[in-house]
């Protein structure tokens, strides 16, 4: 939990760092705005999120996706010891969800790296979505009708 | 329009004076998204039938490079394994203990059994430990080259040790 908070706080700092960095690269002009108290480089305002919001074009989707990926990773990490010390349906279904989502996003990144061309990208992602859906369905079915993930691993390893 | 504004602003012309600040409110830094730029790159180069410049075939492999692709490889492998398991659960008629007993009855020797367990345990422990290394990088830590190598060796060593421990203990 602390890891999540720390990561998100560092993310905000990192974002601010990039904000000033890009403005410095664009040959800044430092002027005093008569109507505002801010004295940072004027060209920084072009890259500032306020002007972008006025132009209506910055989406937070990619950034939220990134954060979501890290959150699920940490959750999955915590589910490991949870599965060992508290096996049961709660952890079984949580594992099913976290494993499927982590795998779905992971393979998604692999496809983004290696698949090019709009139609191929769309098909690959559609295939991945289908696979992930079937995977989640299968895991839930296994949890409901069979021994469940935690018990399955325990049985497998006792071999 | 945005391009014109950026050019002028870079040269520091009169448009940069405060009273012209109204133009900036609607200026957009980039006209295209990263995805669009990538697609343009690939479309152009595929259309011109250009061969891809050699990279992994000529570049000298380093430990960080190998660990990175192994992280990806183990990830894809594990994901495939989970999907295969889920698909089999949906398709096969019997229950899990039934199939486990089936495998038991094959009387696979302890050596092969240990090898198979290592084949499952090592990708899992490597991907998990390297994943933690990745999360440290995501928090901004450990980017110097000595740190990258040191943490890398720790991950490799711990992966092997925990895999062996998992086989020996259970």
Automatic annotation (TrEMBL), chain A:
InterPro entries (alphabetical): CybS, SQR/QFR_C/D
Pfam family, one: CybS
Parts forming coiled coils: none
Residues holding heme b: 102
Subcellular location: Mitochondrion inner membrane
GO process terms (BP): mitochondrial electron transport, succinate to ubiquinone; tricarboxylic acid cycle
Membrane topology: Multi-pass membrane protein
CC terms in the record's Gene Ontology section: mitochondrial inner membrane
Similarity section: Belongs to the CybS family.
Stated name of the protein: Succinate dehydrogenase [ubiquinone] cytochrome b small subunit
Species assigned in the record: Oncorhynchus kisutch (Coho salmon)
Gene (UniProt): SDHD
UniProtKB/TrEMBL annotation, chain B:
Cross-referenced SUPFAM superfamilies: Fumarate reductase respiratory complex transmembrane subunits
Compartments, record wording: Membrane
Pfam families referenced in this protein's UniProt entry, alphabetically: Sdh_cyt (PF01127)
InterPro entries: SQR/QFR_C/D, Succ_DH_cyt_bsu_CS, Succ_DH_cytb556, SuccDH_FuR_B_TM-su
Keyword Iron recorded: yes
Keyword Heme (UniProt): yes
Transmembrane segments: 75-96, 102-127, 148-169
Membrane topology classification: Multi-pass membrane protein
Any one of the GO BP annotations: tricarboxylic acid cycle
Keyword vocabulary terms for this entry: Heme, Iron, Membrane, Metal-binding, Transmembrane, Transmembrane helix
Gene Ontology CC terms, in alphabetical order: membrane; mitochondrion
Molecular function GO terms recorded: electron transfer activity; metal ion binding
Biological pathway: Carbohydrate metabolism; tricarboxylic acid cycle
Oligomer status and interactors: Component of complex II composed of four subunits: the flavoprotein (FP) SDHA, iron-sulfur protein (IP) SDHB, and a cytochrome b560 composed of SDHC and SDHD.
Function (record text): Membrane-anchoring subunit of succinate dehydrogenase (SDH) that is involved in complex II of the mitochondrial electron transport chain and is responsible for transferring electrons from succinate to ubiquinone (coenzyme Q). SDH also oxidizes malate to the non-canonical enol form of oxaloacetate, enol-oxaloacetate. Enol-oxaloacetate, which is a potent inhibitor of the succinate dehydrogenase activity, is further isomerized into keto-oxaloacetate.
PANTHER family: SUCCINATE DEHYDROGENASE CYTOCHROME B560 SUBUNIT, SUCCINATE DEHYDROGENASE CYTOCHROME B560 SUBUNIT, MITOCHONDRIAL
Name of the protein this chain belongs to: Succinate dehydrogenase cytochrome b560 subunit, mitochondrial
